[in-house]
Amino acid sequence: MNLFSSLIKKNGPIIGTYLLIAIIFWFIFLIIIPQLYMVDLSFRPNLSPLERGGDKDFYTLEHYKHFLFGSAGSNNYFNVVDISVFFKTIFISIIVTILNLLFCYPIAFYIAKVAQPNSARFLIIALIIPFWINELLRSFALRVLLANEGVINTFLTQIGLIDTGLLFITNNVGLYSGLTYAYLLLMMFPLYNAIESLDKNQLEAAKDLGSSTFWTHIRVVIPHAKPGIVSGCTMVFMLTVGALATPVVLGGPNTLWFPELIYQWFKMSNNWSRGAAYSFLLLIISVIFVLTMMRLFKVRIGEIIK
């Protein structure tokens, strides 16, 4: 009722009612129903549409057992490949999230509290314009820069700093760089919005009381910006752990991203039930990450989505 009243108050009865219906439709038909169908599908055997509802259609843990133990007849106790890819994807996604936070925090603070209004607007526009280009094209551009015979290696070789090209792609430097850059704005703007709302008088008071710049950030800015930090980290982690285009383009020859496995089950193996099971595992990890961040920073869901 509060949402409905707010929409009516801000937009009028007709537009407010339309927006409420659109939100409900979007939430139910584009989020809840597809997710419930995916969960249900993950517990069923892989059958053709004509076989659905027949004797062969029953609930099973087959696909989750395959994730843990592999196919029948395997000599391994665990499905080492899928499990290692799963946890490596999570680990790299956490590293990318941390890198994004460390990179974006000082920029967000500078734009929000240090830069003059004209400079702040210019910096925001400069950050936004590169993202007018499709993510896939940006990934290929980074590959051109970081390839073994790419722009950077060619330049370093010609000026004599290196003899042979550095293996940026093979060593996953390109993957880390591409994923960090791909979701930069999703970390930047929550941080900026949170820091911008901080009263400058608090910063001046901390300075007058003898607090150093470091401790002012630790004791004043970061506690105030906790909702922005949680929101940014949540969005960056969820999109990174579910990324497909950037890992395909910038991943090394021995790098396999968990969404690539999901894609293979859905499209190449035409095993939608197993793809749904693997997708559900990824969803569970995303939910756990969100809840962990909320508990770690002691924020409520309402503070994150403000």
Key attributes of the depicted protein:
306 residues; 2 domains
- Tell me how many strands there are: 0
CATH homologous superfamily label of the largest domain: MetI-like
Helix content: over 70%
How many domains comprise the coordinates? 2
Could you list the spans in which at least 5 consecutive residues all have pLDDT below 50?
A: none
**CATH architecture designation of the largest domain:** Orthogonal Bundle
What is the C-level CATH assignment of the largest domain?
A: Mainly Alpha
Radius of gyration: 24 Å
Report the CATH topology name of the largest domain: MetI-like fold
What is the average per-residue confidence, as pLDDT, rounded to a whole number?
86
Structure description:
Helix 4 packs antiparallel against helix 12. The protein has helices spanning 2-11, 13-42, 62-69, 80-114, 117-128, 135-146, 151-158, 173-182, 184-196, 200-208, 213-224, 226-241, 245-250, 258-268, 272-297, 301-304. The chain is globular. The chain is built from 16 helices and no strands. It has two domains: 1-42; 79-304, MetI-like fold. It has 306 residues and is an all-alpha fold. The model has no long low-confidence stretch (mean pLDDT 86).
